[in-house]
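call fold(seq) -> tokens
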Amino acid sequence: MNLLVTNDDGIGSPFFHELVHALRAARHQLYVAVPASEQSWTGASKTRSRPVKCAPVDRGFGCPTWMLDGTPSDCVNIAIAHLLGDVKLDAVVSGINVGFNCSLGFILASGTVAGAWEGAIHGLPAFAFSQDVSEEVYAHLKERGGEPEGELLATLKISAAHAARLVGEIAPTVGRNSFTVQNFNFPIPCRVDTPVRRTVPAQVHVPGLFSPAADDGSHRLVWGNIVDVSPPEPLTDVRCLEQGCISHTMLDYRRLGHG
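ret:
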């Protein structure tokens, strides 16, 4: 298939590189349009107040690759409109994100999900992939430039292989104009035989995401206390990861406003 691939962690993310390599190994034709720097939690925002710069680059992916100084939504929109020419895409794939994209409290803020959503509003099948990590591992990865090692690296390679398989299996079954994002979250560890379970987004409160005011009156983003208020059923994405399974949530935006 012809796949447009993006992410929100930036072109240097090893998590993104593993996804690209797995999709290439599955013999898909890839086109990469990715932010130059991390765009986490930018949601579906598009750059309005300045021009977005775009340049072709060679990062050894073996496919056409562009780097843009915008958001994941910018990348997908510009690629489809101006970079791919007459290429007929079969799907848009976003990820693998560093950290999960679970629950209503995070999905709507996710740049990874937003990159996939931009594909969905172009009428294309869309996939978002994220790798769960602990807060300690996340902080360690940020300090080391996102370079995984040991068990995490082994998990990441398996997760990327799962992602390539899932795109190959699901994309041909999704009709055009579904306005749906297939949101997958991989547990830690993730194994070859780790099952995939259908889930719904957890219902969480996310208070206190910003620090108290500093002397200059500024507030900085911090991790607050996440309060899960989900009912016992159906299975949520957060609970699925806690059980060691791969979470698959179908984000069907056509259902917004319907009881």
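The chain has seven helices and eleven strands.
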